[in-house]
Design a protein that fits this description.
heterodimer; A: 496 residues; alpha+beta; Uridine Diphospho-n-acetylenolpyruvylglucosamine Reductase, domain 2; Uridine Diphospho-n-acetylenolpyruvylglucosamine Reductase, domain 3; Alpha-Beta Plaits; B: alpha/beta; Glutathione S-transferase Yfyf (Class Pi), Chain A, domain 2; four-stranded parallel sheet; 9 strands; 58% helix
């Protein structure tokens, strides 16, 4: 560890902490045997795996604070984890560290209708906030595709988005207050129920910090009034180009749909097989457009969007306004990631952003990449804000296929950067993209990030090796993985 | 088991010689389908209770992978496999189509054949499986059970918590024991259609259904006949093997399956109608169970032929279409999705459609309807603590609907939920979809179902 973030204290053996962890979290709140610990070895991104040194399942903020304090006193790293659905290995455990799982902290503490907010524990599933608020005519707007399972705490860590970010923004736009445990084990409250505090935006800094600034133990989120009318439209096109063009004309016309989603032929095929979503036959691309708001406004936009899509070449249009009909249209889109398991033994979900206008060009280049490498790529994306989710398909049983898929996946990110975009739209950086950060940020930027991180975590124990590139993780050429380092290859140095 | 036919054991040995490796390989392929997305977590009853990875389908699949690749069954892993209710909510939730049902069946079989359980656990399992798959033995229990309930000792014992201290499993048996009245007369072997016959169907009586809820079978036969079916109820039928199969006792299950196949092969029926979700779900893949138990190809084929004719009562009636007149039932019913109907067979729409066809009947769904009530075959006997907690959750959900009666398509659920409602001090009449239809077709007053005068 000598080349990493210079821990100032010698690291204690995590096993030596176990008796004290048990006193804090109770006998059944600490997992130490190998079989059980191994079930936590990865989050939703399974090609990164590390068995945690110990797993703790606290039930209260005080327990979280006590665990973190114990870690801090002994220089032992900790990694927070919610539902384990993340797609950037942000919750990848540390072999000599404690995995701090919030899955038992799942109470909705308060629905404050007057102040239009909800107070929840971090392990509450995203969709459960909406379920709790629905009887009052409200919902929680950020809606990642995994919303029925992903936790609010995880959403805070990753600044998660979802199909409806186009109109409603990301998690950071909805968090009003946070109780956090800092990397030294201090319990701190940020913000409150009312939006918009003065001074430094500490909530803004914490949201999206991927567990490197501590653990959220209580989250206050704003609730959004359920719209008077919601209409979901499905348009089928004969090419992704035509679909992309339709998106351009909708946005240019000044219409702001709550969501504009696109799927290409391969993604449609996967979704059909998984959930029989019954999208129009022969579609090379489908566009799912959702409009919500006051009835009169939605009706006007509906006519406009339908006209624009027809002009761009839509050969079939479906309009759904009932909840069940709308759910049927969404079903295919929402299941698309996992559904790819039906058409490929293994896959990488990539997450990149390009300016909306570059969409058709980038899609064409992805098709070329795919053809040249023989690696199939299915595309699912939030077309309205240019957030791409290429699904890079491969057979992990085939030697070398994984590496080629990684290459294609990396090349797609290069495309995004080349076109003025970014390496992640909403899945976060985690371990997976930490080494790619230098492609987006210069050394000064990264040094500034690091200064900020160390202000709260001087010993580098809070989710180490995530978010920012470290020499340990990325070797001497940060950001570029070109196979093993020569020193490693010749056996003169080790990389962990 | 002593009453396994001798040939079953012999055949198993013969066919199983080379098959296990192939079965392990297929098992490995099925494991690979899991992409670790976690969509199965929220509706998994044990994850709902304990919030830990090893007690979720995703975690159990991980443990299965460990078992598979390292060829070792750890005590920890077995405990978590045993914790699984086999409710299959994860199968419904999984976007990748992971065949968790086949995975857990194979795993349980392996546990049963390879793992050395502690003696007390073995004894309990032995006792449970010597009793439950046998309608006649269960029926013998009715007498003593009724006397025990009538004596008032039952409620005294329940209140004292004595049984909980002696044996949680015995206490569980006591808790879920239904209040028994005298049974209706036994069903005749042939019930002719009323009016022109539209179909000729076989009917499964079921062990628990037959012993504890004979009135459900009577109602089922009557509804089928009123809707124009000749109903054949072979008296020689035994257990379908579901309970044993769900617990990994596949040879035992296959033995039951073979005898059931022989019984129904003798009757020329279009379909075999089942009114018990657990039985129906298991009978629809008899071929898989037989294959997994090492049966030869001929038996697997016969199993498949039977499985293809198996249909849940509600599926069958919806396909057949209504003919008999529905009389009004002014009642508020809550419908409970039995896991082995909704998750196991994908039968969700049909019971609701049938209930919606009854004038005056208002039907509510339960909150968290995907989550198991904790009955799960004999789970409430093997894991009584978890079963009670899940039962209580379900009880609260039922109470929140304010319904007069609870309708369920599975006897185990009916016992479990009725017990939970009694415990909570808000007893509710629990009835079967067949009984609701029967009451409507015969124009009975709603009070007959709700038990309210």
């Amino acid at each position: 560890m000598s080349e990493t973030a210079t821990p100032t204290r010698a690291q204690a053996d995590v096993a030596s902490l176990v008796p004290r962890l048990r006193r804090i979290c109770g006998e059944d709140g600490v997992l130490t045997d190998t079989a059980r610990r191994r079930t936590y070895e990865s989050d939703g991104l399974t090609h990164h795996r590390t068995v945690p040194g110990a797993v703790v399942l606290p039930t209260t903020a005080d327990q979280v604070a006590a665990v973190v304090r114990l870690c801090a006193e002994n220089g032992v790293p900790f990694v927070p984890r919610g539902a384990g659905t993340g797609l950037s290995a942000g919750a990848l455990p540390h072999a000599e560290g404690v995995l701090l799982v919030t899955s038992r902290m799942r109470r909705v503490l308060e629905i404050d209708v007057e102040n239009e907010c909800a107070v929840v524990e971090p392990g509450v599933a995203n969709l459960d906030v909406t379920r709790a608020a629905a009887p009052y005519g409200y919902y929680y707007a950020p809606d990642p595709s995994s919303q029925q399972v992903c936790s609010v705490g995880g959403n805070v860590a990753e600044n998660s988005g979802g199909a409806h970010c186009l109109k409603y923004g990301f998690t950071v736009n909805h968090v009003r207050g946070l109780d956090i445990v800092t990397p030294s084990g201090e319990q701190v409250s940020l913000g409150g129920k009312s939006p918009g505090a003065h001074g430094y935006d500490l909530i803004g800094a914490f949201v999206g910090s991927e567990g490197t600034l501590g653990v959220a133990t209580r989250v206050t989120v704003g609730l959004t009034r359920s719209p008077e009318r919601t209409v979901t439209l499905l348009f089928a096109f004969t090419s992704t180009d035509a679909g992309g063009q339709a998106v351009g004309s909708i946005i240019s016309a000044g219409v702001l749909p709550s969501a504009v989603e696109m799927m290409d032929a391969l993604a449609i095929e996967a979704a059909e097989r998984a959930v029989a979503c019954d999208y129009p036959a022969g579609a090379a691309a489908v566009l799912v457009v959702e409009l919500d708001g006051p009835a009169a406004e939605v009706d006007a936009q509906l006519a406009e969007v339908t006209r624009l899509c027809a002009e761009a070449g839509a050969f079939e249009t479906r309009t759904a306004s009932g909840a069940d009909e709308r759910a049927r249209i969404w079903k295919g889109r929402k299941s698309a990631f996992a559904a790819v398991g039906r058409i490929s033994p293994a896959y990488i979900v990539q997450d990149g952003v390009v300016p909306r206008t570059a969409l058709p060009e980038v899609l064409r280049r992805i098709t070329e990449l795919s053809a040249a490498s023989g690696i199939r790529v299915a595309n699912v994306f939030h077309a309205g804000d240019g957030n791409l989710h290429p699904l890079v398909l491969f057979d992990d049983a085939e030697p070398g296929a994984g590496e080629r898929a990684e290459e294609v996946s990396g090349a797609i990110l290069d495309l995004c950067i080349e076109h003025g975009g970014s390496i992640t739209g909403e899945h976060g950086v985690g371990v997976d993209k930490a080494c790619k950060m230098p492609r987006m940020y210069g050394p000064d930027d990264l040094a500034t990030f690091d200064l900020f991180r160390r202000a709260l975590d001087p010993d580098g124990i809070a989710n180490p090796d995530k978010l920012l590139p470290t020499p340990r993780l990325c070797g001497e050429q940060p950001g570029v993985r070109r196979g093993p380092h020569p020193l490693v290859e010749s056996g003169r140095a080790e990389q962990f | 088991m002593t009453d396994l036919p001798a040939d079953a054991a012999n055949e198993t040995a013969g066919a199983a010689d080379e098959a296990p490796d192939e079965r392990e390989r297929l098992f490995g392929e099925l494991l690979d389908d899991c992409v670790h997305c976690g969509f199965c977590l929220p509706t998994c009853p044990t994850h709902v209770l304990w919030g830990q990875e090893m007690d979720s389908p995703r975690g159990r699949i991980h443990l299965m992978e460990q078992t598979h690749t390292e060829d070792v069954l750890t005590e920890a892993a077995v405990g978590h496999f045993d914790n699984c209710l086999g409710c299959l909510a994860c199968v419904s939730a999984c976007p990748s189509g992971v065949a968790y049902d086949a995975l857990i069946e194979h795993t349980r079989h392996r546990v049963e054949t390879e793992y050395d359980r502690p003696r007390s656990e073995r004894a309990l399992r032995g006792a449970v499986f010597a009793l439950f798959p046998h309608r006649n033995r269960l029926r013998l229990l009715r007498g003593p059970l009724r006397a025990y309930q009538a004596s008032g000792v039952s409620s005294l014992v329940r209140r004292s918590g004595l049984l909980d201290r002696i044996s949680p499993s015995l206490a569980a048996m006591d808790r879920v024991a239904p209040s028994l009245s005298s049974p209706p007369p036994a069903l005749p072997e042939r019930v002719p259609a009323v009016g022109r016959a539209r179909a000729r169907v076989g009917m499964l009586v079921g062990c628990v259904q037959g012993a504890f809820f004979p009135e459900v079978n009577t109602a089922t036969a009557r509804v089928l006949a009123l809707e124009g079916c000749d109903v054949v109820v072979p008296r020689s039928q035994g257990c379908c093997g579901a309970l044993s199969g769900h617990a990994g006792r596949l040879e035992e299950s296959a033995g039951f399956a073979r005898r059931l196949i022989e019984v129904f092969e003798r009757e020329r029926v279009d379909r075999i109608v089942v009114n018990s979700a657990g039985c129906g779900s298991s009978m629809k893949h008899l071929d898989r169970t037989l294959a997994e138990a090492g049966a030869d190809e001929a038996w697997v084929r016969r199993g498949r032929a039977l499985a293809e004719r198996v249909v849940d009562l509600t599926e069958f009636l919806v396909d057949l279409g209504p003919r008999a007149e529905r009389h009004p039932l002014p009642l508020h019913a809550a419908y409970h999705d039995a896991c082995h109907l909704s998750h196991g067979q994908g039968v969700i729409r049909q019971p609701r459609a049938l209930l919606a066809g009854i004038p005056g009947l208002r039907v509510s769904d339960l909150p968290d309807k995907e989550v198991c009530c904790g009955s799960a075959g004999v789970y409430n006997l093997l894991r009584p603590g978890a079963a009670v907690e899940l039962g209580d959750r379900k009880g609260r959900d039922v109470a929140s609907t304010g319904a007069d009666v609870l309708v369920s398509g599975n006897p185990g659920c009916s016992l479990q939920i009725a017990a939970a409602m009694r415990r909570a001090g808000s007893p509710i009449a629990v009835t079967h979809t067949a009984q609701v239809l029967d009451a409507s077709l015969r124009g009975l007053p709603a009070e007959r179902l709700s038990g309210r005068a």
